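CORE FACILITY INTAKE
Project code: CF-77B
Contact: R.S. (postdoc)
Sample description: multi-component assembly, two entities in total
Requested service: structural model of the whole complex
Turnaround: standard
Below are the sequence entries exactly as provided by the requester. Do not edit them.
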Amino acid sequence: MDKIINNYEILEIKEIISETNTIKTFIFDWEMNEDRTPLPGQFVMIWSFSKVFDEKPMSISMIDKDKNEIGITVKNIGNFTANLHSLSAGDKLGIRGPYGNGFNTENIKDKNILAIGGGVGMAPINCFTNYSKELGGNIDIICASVTKDELLFSNSDNEINDNKLTDKFNKDKATKNIGTVNVFTCTDDGTCGFEGYATHRTTDLLKYKSYDMVVVCGPEIMMKGIFDLLKDKKIPAQYSMERYMKCAMGICGQCCVDKKGWRICVEGPVFSNKDLKEIQEFGKYHRNASGLKEKY
Amino acid sequence: MLKTEISGINFENPLILAAGVMGSNASSLNWILDSGAGGVVTKSFSQEPNLGYSNPTTVAVEGGILNAIGLSSPGVQNFKKELALINKSNKDGQKNIAIASIYGSNPDEFSNLVHNIENDVDMIELNVSCPHAMSGCGAAIGQDPDLTYEIVKTVKNASSNNIPILAKLTPNVTDLMEIAKSAEKAEADGLTLINSLGPGMKIDIDAKKPILSNKFGGMSGPAIKPIAIRWVYDAYENCDIPIIGVGGISNYKDVVEFIYAGAKATQIGTSIMYEGIEIFSKIKNDLKNFMQKNEFNSIDEMIGYSHKN
């Protein structure tokens, strides 16, 4: 009980990084105590108590255990997020968490991992890849967005040219790199990297390489596309879901999904493809604050 | 051994999911039923859709939580579809009991709700006790003995199939027994005691503001149990209709305490946050062991035990 009571804190924003025109990362000092050390894929509840009064779940996009910092990465899409974007370093926000089940990162040393992030869905993917890289995973990231300016965490250092794909793979294989990260950008309008959706890009990559594991976060329609694509391939995959949340403590029932009734805030937000098969509303509908179903 | 009966409705065990907890859709209700609950109460719903209050809607405090969800509801026409999906029996083949919690601000709304759903559920619980409801709803009714009488009477008359009606009452009154007797006089089939306490408030000293967007909210959790026990005990002495005890239950001892005070069944809510949904199966097993050890053969033998000499 104490664990839940004591973890609400008002923290100063330590630093704000402008990632794109619409996306910012907010960094906070964060003591890595036993109950508070986050895992990639977990989320925190962010309470804004000035100007706009509201509280929303946000994926953790950065965990730095050496510097005792965490980050959240927020796209400006509504009143709440517009207000966050108007804040400066030194302004304060309430934070509680971390909550939920993160990505399973067991036994990923030397494994070939495909991490797919669509839009601001790159936030937990970025957290996952940085974490997994240190554990020795070989990660290929599909960083997808509508257009070049909206690409998040595409870190051009790692970006590789499309027509050298096969060369790069062969080289990786030959030198047996461990803990590598390759970024494959993908934009709907073709302004950077592959032109098309993340699903197309995934299909393309799977022609060249086999993966031991896939992690995905993005718009639910994109995730459904990836899910359908991978479902016959027998590659273990994990998906990070999102639903309207109120308590985030597993009690109010707002984020329970059909048909198992699982709570996104406790049993999720990350689900394996095996579990996701049981979530019948995945890719179809979600519920608003009143409980009313809204189709995707 | 664990069976109990309330107004002709037979429960496999005396552990019921309380209103407002994981009760927004049939899927989570079925999950709770499969995990061992004898019955479930839905989240309270109304005639028309309602978004409730904005976040923060819950905040943990010493001994429990405060909540001001604000009676969010998809409206009866939408919620009827969820009610239809509640399983009639659990995964072990035992009969499930579904209780609909309804709220409104006037007799007509309550009557319409009853007409709409009386064939979809086994019982109806009237939420005349929510401490953070909009004006005219919840505790605004349950703090007034005449209004309580009027709503209960209206609902009883509105039912064409004589579905059992439970009145869930608020402890936030001078004399709860006066309200309980009004409900009984209006022919309520049972009392659910108690709704959340207060309302209370939590101010964050760094933000210098109340955390809940509604500023105040109902208190639930272990800290309110002694108050709930007291009202169940008093109601057992003052009323002749069955009582369901609710407030701060987190283990079998709490359940036994409520039953000894006079409850025929109990409801569990907030402790799911601490214990998970496994709490139903755990308490069920522990309760059975307790009864065997203390040579009780039925829940009936235990009801009101603390009133006996």
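Facility notes:
- The helical segments of chain A are 2-5, 79-85, 122-134, 165-175, 198-208, 220-230, 273-276.
- Chain A has three domains: 4-99, 103-240, 243-296.
Invoice: internal transfer
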